[in-house]
Amino acid sequence: MDNTFYKKYTQQILFGILIIFYVIIFYIYSLEQCYPRIGFAGVYGICIGTGFLFGGLFLKEEFKRLEKKNILKPIKRKNTGKKNEKISLIFNHITSFYIGYQIAYVINGHYADLVENPANVIFSLHLSEFNLLYPFYGLLFVIISIILSYDKKNKSSEDKNEKKLIFPNELIFNFAVAAFIGGILGAKLLFVFTEEGNFFDKLFSTSGLTFYGGLIGGAMSVIIYSKQLKLPVLNIADCFAPILMLAYSIGRMGCQLAGDGCWGIKNNHSHSFLPDWIWSNKYIGAIHGQPIEFYDFSNYQPNISVFPTPIYETILCLAFFLFLWFIRKKIQVPGLLFSIYFMLNGIERFFIEKIRVNPPISYKDVPNTSYINEGIGFYNKGDTVLNSNTQAQIIAITLFIIGLLGFIYLIKRNYDTKKSIKKI
Questions:
Q1: How far is 223 from 182, CA to CA, in rounded Å?
Q2: Of 83, 127, 190, 198, which sits 20 to 30 A from 91 (CA to CA)?
Q3: Which residues make Cβ contacts (< 8 Å) with residue 235, sequence separation at least 6?
Q4: Residues whose CB falls within 8 Å of the CB of residue 97, separated by 6 or more in sequence, listed in order
Q5: Of 37, 200, 181, which Cα lies nearest the Cα of 108?
Q6: Which residues pair with 301 in a beta bridge?
Q7: Residue 97, Cβ neighbours under 10 Å: how many?
Q8: Under DSSP, is residue 270 helix (H, G, I), strand (E, B) or coil?
Q9: pTM score > 0.85 for this model?
Q10: Angle between helices 211-228 and 391-423 (to 10 degrees)
C-alpha cells in the first residue's frame, strides 16, 4: 500500500478494520459459545492486546492532530546517535517479548506460582512446561510495540550532541506501558482497601482486580508521565477519553468469549424483534462453568440462561466511543471531553449493574458470585439483589458526579475567561 495513501486516509482505514473486527465478533457472539482458548492462545489476552492496539493507533492519530494545532509540542531530548538508538530498539523489543512471554505463563494457570515465588517465575523461561502460547504472546507484544512506536527515520545526518525533537505521538507505547502498570496497581489496591480480610492475604491473592481501580491507577500514571514530559494534562486526558471507551468495549469481548462469570441475572425470554442471543445466553464452554441460580446456600439450578451483559457493554461503549470521537473536534475547552467520558462511564456501569451478577454492598455474605464446580451464579431472593447498590454502582455514581462538576466548572471558567478578555 502506498504510504502517502495510508497517511491521507489513516482514520478511514482504521475505522474500516474496526468495523470488520466488530462484525466478526458479533458473528461469534451469535453462536452462543465460549472460547477460553483459540488454538493455543487465550482469548481474553487476545482481546486485551487488540484493545491496546486499536486504542494506541487511534490515540496516535489524535496526538498528531493536536501536534498540528501546536497544542501538543515536541519534546527536546539529547540525541545519542544511531548506534545507541538501535541498541535501545533491540532492548525494547526483547523486553516486550519477555513481558508477553511471562504474562502468558502466568495467565496459563500459574498465577499462584507467581504469588508464592515471584523470582522463580520472573527469572525463568519455563522450558520444562513450555507452551506455544508463551512465545505467541511475546511476539504479540513485540508487534504491538513496533506498531505503536513506529516512526519514519530521519534521513538527515545529526550530530551526536544535537538536541533531538521527539513528538508526543512517537511516545504512544510509553503512555500505554504507564497506563498498564498504573492500571494493574490501581486495580489491585482498590480491591485490597475495599474488601474485608487480611491485608497481605488480599495483596498476594490470586484474585482481585477491579476495573475502576485500574481506571484510577492508569489515569494517575498517565498524569504523572504527562507532567514529566511537560505536556498539558487536560488535553492528554481528552485524548484518552474516546480511547478508554473503545478499549473497554473490546476488553468486554474477552469476558463474553471466555465466559469469565461477569454475566447477568437469569433471563429466559426475548424482549424484542432482536435475536434470542442478545437477551439470553447459557455460556456453553465458559472457563468457570455455566451460570447457575441459587435458591439457598445448598440448593441451586445449573445451566440457566442469563443476560449477556458483556455484549451490552460492548455495544454501549462502542457507541460512546464513536460519540466522543466525533465531537472531540467541536469541543475547545480542555478537560471537557474527559468530564463527559466520566459521566457516560458512570451511567453505563450503574444501569448494567442492575442486571449483572455482582454482590450488593449490603449483602456481602450472599453467594451470588461464588465459584463452585458447576459454575458462577446469583442468589434468587426477590428484589434484594436488584435494589441493593453494588460497589461498582457507588463508584459509578461518584464518577458521574465528578464528571458533572468538572463539566460545570470548566464551562464556567471558560465563560469567565472570555468575559474578562472582552472587558479588556
A1: 11
A2: 127
A3: 66, 71, 72, 334
A4: 135, 138, 139, 141, 142
A5: 37
A6: 293
A7: 20
A8: coil
A9: no
A10: 30
Strands (E), 229-335: 292-294, 300-302
- Amino acid letter, residue 385: V
| CA 10 to each of CA 24, 108, 168, 267: distance values in angstroms, whole numbers, following the listed order | 21, 36, 18, 42
Residue that is written with C-alpha cell 489515569 in the block: 219
Distance CA 136, CA 16 (A): 26
Distances (CA, A) of 412 to 233, 310, 407: 19, 37, 9
What is the predicted pLDDT for the residue at 309?
A: 93
355 vs 309: CA distance, rounded Å: 8
pLDDT per 10-residue tile (average), the chain, 424 residues:
65 92 93 71 75 89 92 77 67 83 82 63 78 88 77 46 76 83 76 63 55 78 88 93 93 86 80 83 81 64 83 96 95 94 94 79 43 41 47 87 95 79 62
Q: What pLDDT score was predicted for residue 155?
A: 42
Kindly write down the DSSP assignment for every residue of 28-82, as one continuous string: HHHTTB--SEETTEEHHHHHHHHHHHHHHHHHHHHHHHHHHTTSS--EEEE---H
User: Cell 492532530 belongs to which residue?
Assistant: 65
Give, as one character, the DSSP assignment of residue 121: H
Q: What is the pLDDT of residue 363?
A: 40
Cα–Cα distance measured from residue 282 to residue 327, given in angstroms and rounded to the nearest whole number: 38
In this structure, are residues 362 and 390 in contact, taking their beta carbons and an 8 Å threshold?
Answer: no
Residues contacting 375, CB < 8 A, separation 6+ = 261, 283, 286, 288, 289, 290, 291, 292, 302, 303
Cell for 181? 502498570
Output b/e per residue, 287-304; b: 16+ Cβ within 10 A. bbbbbbbbeeeeebeeeb
